[in-house]
Write a structure and sequence with these properties.
The chain is about 65% helix and about 5% strand. With about 600 residues, the protein is mainly α.
């Protein structure tokens, strides 16, 4: 395994220990698991291919249990490869190792591909009879979610071809994007010198206290992206076309259809969310950024001032210990069990925090598999936003620990609900920090920071969603130029952020570094979904809803077994009601009201 980087400024930040998965790329246990999975997959295929229609309920349950055991082992293997690669994206040996794992696992899973295809071909009558058996019925939610895709399933031969070619089609382009961004350096001018910085380091400059530093960061980001704009434009066009081709073969009515089915959310619910946020642009982002321009004493802000600290902000820095104690204290104030689970991430080295070169520039909590535990990755710079990022990812981590009891097939939560615990963790942390603060000026700074986080989570993500809709809507007419992609980007930014900004040409290529557009098309609305949902949920909590904490934990433990209607019903909430989204957005507008009143 590659050695950890020895950067003095990162010595106090934790690096994760992946030994609970495997001790290294050459681990005997890893090789043994690959060999077992390859053999078991072939045995599984010989035992069950072509037989599902004739099985009774008990036999089908046994087949699903064996399939789940294979899924768990394969998930463990791929989790290790993904996590190792996430912190060593510029290491060619690690990239080659990860690619080899993908190829081996693709070969193995080709032998199990028949199972869900055949399951989906069962008639409703046959399946209803089989699912009456209690051991089969346990997997009812998983079977339900598989069969959602029945109308879009292709022939076995076509499905196998798409499965095997994924390595050299979209997955290869996603890998190219990741490695391109990991290797890219952004030229930041500091005095007479130019320092080449990573993407994570450059993005961090955009929230610096000094306007000149923010500008240099923005100019460097723009320059770096322009230097690779042909490659990034090609990747974006190729993946959009790849999706269009597969969507046509599968008869999806719209580019977003697959994502909505996977998220177990109805089209009209997403439309209601998007419509509510767009309808509130003027009341939220336009109003807030106009207020921020007043604080800065300017008629219009520059785009690099969007995440700037307030003028009176002391640019307070948090040590890792302070960040840890802040989040654990907030979690414990809500429910001791929540803090106990989160504390394990620190004590057992389940977190990787240093902002190293070659590391993924973002943040995530990877659930791995139920038999192990999640891992959190982030880039900690000591800012208040990093504390919120820690709270966010640990919320995911707590959720993943609690849902692990559902097993490998049903522990994962749809993206829309996966953001619930993370955003709720942020809200708990923010409220705890706000309550502990005694100085009015600091309270205002905290409140403004929370509003900006909400702008980034709700308004910005819906703007991202609009960008995707327009790009995928235009792609069937031909390849989009970098100029056209920049035009679409600038259009949605003007609509969402409002007239309080100067939109300069240096801002045009900023679409090119957003990984979600490529990794998971139409993922981004899930952030807005989660934020608005949590705002409504937190409003219920503050209102003293009886048994809220117990109901909240039951919701997290459910994993992917229940849909959003069933999960929210105990709290008296319904996401299909347009009033639900306005209730969540009202929390944001209420914070802006407080800031306006403090002027």
């Amino acid at each position: 395994m590659p050695k950890a980087k020895n950067q003095s400024e990162n010595q106090d930040l934790p690096r994760w220990n992946l030994d609970d998965l495997y001790s290294g790329p050459k681990s005997k246990k890893l090789k043994g698991d690959l060999a077992w999975a390859a053999t078991e997959a072939k045995k599984f295929r010989r035992a069950f291919e072509g037989t599902l229609n004739g099985l009774d309920g008990a036999a089908l349950a046994k087949a699903i249990v064996r399939y789940e055991r294979l899924a768990e082992r394969i998930g463990k293997i791929m989790s290790y490869g993904h996590l190792l690669h996430a912190t060593h994206q510029s290491d060619h040996a690690v990239s080659a190792f990860f690619q080899t794992l993908r190829e081996q696992v693709t070969d193995i899973s080709t032998d199990t591909l028949f199972f869900t295809l055949e399951l989906n071909r069962l008639s409703d009558a046959v399946l209803t009879r089989q699912m009456k058996h209690p051991k089969a019925a346990r997997y009812g939610p998983w079977v339900r979610d598989c069969r959602v895709f029945r109308p879009h399933q292709l022939s076995d031969e076509a499905e196998k071809l798409l499965h095997e070619k994924s390595l050299t089609s979209h997955n290869a382009w996603i890998r190219l994007f990741g490695e391109t961004m990991a290797d890219l350096r952004f030229p930041v001018k500091t005095g007479k010198q130019v320092k080449d910085m990573t993407l994570a380091g450059t993005l961090n400059l955009l929230s610096d206290k000094k306007g000149a530093v923010r500008k240099q960061g923005a100019m460097a980001l723009s320059s770096g992206l322009y230097s690779k704009i042909r490659t990034l434009t090609l990747i974006t066009n190729t993946l959009a076309k790849d999706k269009e081709i597969e969507d046509q073969w599968r008869s999806y009515p719209a580019p977003m259809s697959y994502r909505n089915l996977a998220n177990q959310v109805e089209d009209e619910v997403v439309d209601a969310l998007v419509g509510a946020v767009k309808g509130n642009y003027a009341n939220l982002s336009h109003r807030y950024y106009k207020l921020k321009a007043k604080w800065f004493g300017v008629r219009k802000l520059n785009t690099w001032d969007r995440n700037a600290p307030l003028p009176e902000d002391s640019d307070r820095r948090f040590s890792w210990g302070q960040a840890r104690d802040t989040v654990l204290g907030a979690y414990g104030g809500f429910a001791p069990e929540m803090a106990t689970i989160a504390k394990q991430f620190f004590d057992k080295r389940w977190i990787d925090a240093p902002p190293d070169a070659g590391k993924d520039s973002g943040a995530f909590s990877h659930s791995t598999v139920p038999s192990v535990h999640p891992y959190v990755m982030m880039n900690f710079h000591g800012k208040a936003r990093d504390v919120m990022t820690l709270a966010h990812e640990l919320g995911h981590g707590v959720h993943q620990v609690l849902s692990a009891g559902q097993g490998a097939l049903m522990s994962d939560t749809p993206l829309t609900l996966a953001e619930t615990a993370s955003v709720f963790g942020e809200m708990l942390t923010f409220q705890a920090m706000l309550k502990a603060e005694t100085k009015p000026k600091r309270k205002r700074i905290l409140l403004a920071g929370k509003v900006e986080d909400m702008m980034n989570t709700v308004v910005r993500q819906i703007a991202f969603h609009q960008f995707e809709e327009r790009v995928h809507g235009e792609r069937p007419n031909g390849e989009l130029s970098a100029q056209r992609l920049g035009d679409i980007w600038m259009q949605v930014q003007r609509e969402s952020l409002g007239p309080a900004f100067n939109y300069d040409d240096e801002y045009r290529p900023f679409w090119a570094y957003i990984p979600h557009f490529l990794h998971a098309p139409f993922y981004v609305y899930a952030y807005a979904f989660g934020d608005c949902l949590v705002n409504s949920l937190y409003d219920v909590f503050q209102s003293g809803h009886p048994g809220f904490e117990a109901k909240y934990f039951e919701m997290l433990k459910a994993g992917g077994t229940l849909r959003h209607k069933e999960l929210l019903a105990p709290f008296g909430l319904d996401a299909s009601d347009p009033a639900f989204w306005n209730r969540g957005l009202k929390v944001v507008s209420g914070f802006i009201d407080e800031l306006e009143a403090a002027l």
